[in-house]
Write a structure and sequence with these properties.
Elements lengths: L1 H13 L3 H18 L5 H16 L10 H11 L4 H7 L19
Helix pairs in contact: 1-2, 2-3, 3-5
């Protein structure tokens, strides 16, 4: 399923449908963190980074919350997920976007 989401994200971004891409990245990020799926934390950190890059372009994301609100929520709700934050803070290398997204659902 994640491979399909990755293809959808590529399509949305290529067509400059940034609200849709933002919604998808957020859904993937929050699902990984909610499940505490440690194997995917690097991907979640990459999604958070991409969300920040999209936000810098200042697209109209209404009715979605701002990136700052999302990040504050993630920091508040998932503050104790040290492995995730080590990716976010650059202490661990982020996975390559093209690498191994196909085994994302394997548990």
């Amino acid at each position: 399923q994640h491979v399909g989401a990755a293809r959808l994200l590529l399509l949305l971004e290529a067509r400059e449908l940034l609200r849709g891409a933002t919604a998808c990245y957020r859904a993937l990020l929050l699902a990984i963190l909610a499940r505490a799926y440690v194997r995917a934390y690097g991907h979640a950190a990459r999604y958070l980074k991409r969300l920040g890059e999209i936000a810098l372009r200042q697209p109209d994301l209404q009715p979605l919350a701002t990136h700052e609100s999302l990040e504050a929520h993630v920091r508040s709700k998932h503050a104790r997920k040290a492995a995730f934050w080590s990716y976010v803070n650059g202490k661990r290398a982020l996975p390559d976007a093209a690498a191994a997204d196909g085994d994302f659902d394997a548990e």
